[in-house]
Amino acid sequence: MGEKLLLSGGLAFVGLVLLYLSLRFVSNMTQRRVAALSERQHLQSVGSGSAVGERGDLTRARGVENIQRSASITRKFLVPLLAALTLLLATFPFLDLVSSAVLSVVIGAITVVFGIAVRPVLENGIAGLVISNSKVISVGDTVKIDGLYGVVVDIAPTHTVVRLWDWRRYVVPNSRLIQQPILNYTMIDLQVMGSAEFWVSHDADIDAVREIGLRIINESDNVIPDQESVFWVLELGERAVKCRLAGWAESPAGAWALSHDIRVGIIQAMQSKGIDAHLNKHQMDRSDGIDNPYEVTNDQR
């Protein structure tokens, strides 16, 4: 009996040490996440004139509150779980004193009832803990989820809220969020490339198009001046040449605005320089082998 008591005390001590280390880890992680969010300057997915939309301090304050709440929920989840684990470890040496049949029935019943009652909540709760304490997404990150583009504004225990570019809120259950791909624009840093694709005819001077395009990017207020902008020819199509212009912006919102500047500049330049795109030269007639969809045939009269 003395050896069992000594072993029980040792296992209980291990459980208490594990509880202390877990709580300390949660505290340190919370401090690092709050510090990283406080230092982040850009918290918008798209630049907007909205007074509410531009208030990064409000998003930052909500993010800090969210991180602290997640830490509190994590502690409330860990303490009873590790306490139960410690108790189980402490009683482990005395399990041979209990009938195996009784022990099996009790454990089976508890497992079935607990699994049926709390499975949905438990799935979302565990997924929320994983998301909150990982670096996959954080409050303030610009992401694309289910094809929708926006900023993460809340990571709750059971769901995550994304403020879309048009200020709608997209709510995703954490259990589903952790099982699907996420495009995170700000996971490592904030600099993002803004780009735009366009077509020019085969007759166009491609060197002149490149020069005009790069000048458009460099004249934009949303481009980083000391970063090199690029021009690519992506495709030699049957009717035209597909091109892309890209330049670096300081944030996803800046990249969005830079892409807009490129598109507007290209349209204006092509109009003023007389550069044709394939649609300008394309004629819907019989010689193309394509029937005119607006032509009324004899059968339709």
Protein model, in words:
The chain is α+β, with helices and mostly antiparallel strands. The chain folds into 2 domains: 1-188, no CATH class; 192-281, Alpha-Beta Plaits (2-Layer Sandwich), CATH 3.30.70. It has 7 helices and 8 strands, in the order H-H-H-E-E-E-E-H-E-E-H-E-E-H-H. It has helices at 2-39, 56-91, 100-132, 174-177, 206-218, 252-273, 278-281, and strands spanning 142-145, 148-155, 159-164, 169-173, 183-184, 192-200, 230-236, 241-249. The strands form 2 sheets. A 5-stranded antiparallel β-sheet has the order 4-3-2-1-5. The chain has a 3-stranded antiparallel β-sheet with strand order 6-8-7. Helix 5 (206-218) packs across helix 6 (252-273). It is elongated. Mean pLDDT is 76; it is low at 50-55 and 280-301.
| Tertiary shape | elongated
Estimate the mean pLDDT confidence. Answer: 76
In N-to-C order, the SSE pattern is: HHHEEEEHEEHEEHH
| Count of extended strands | 8
State the distance separating the first and last CA atoms: 103 Å
Name the helicity range. Answer: 40-55%
Oligomer designation: single chain
Main sheet properties? 5 strands, antiparallel
**Helical/strand content category:** alpha+beta
Major sheet: arrangement of strands: 4-3-2-1-5
The structural domain count equals 2
* Cα radius of gyration in angstroms: 30 Å
Ranges where pLDDT stays below 50 over 5 or more residues in a row are: 50-55, 280-301
Q: What is the helix tally?
A: 7
Sheet-strand content, in percent, reads 15-25%
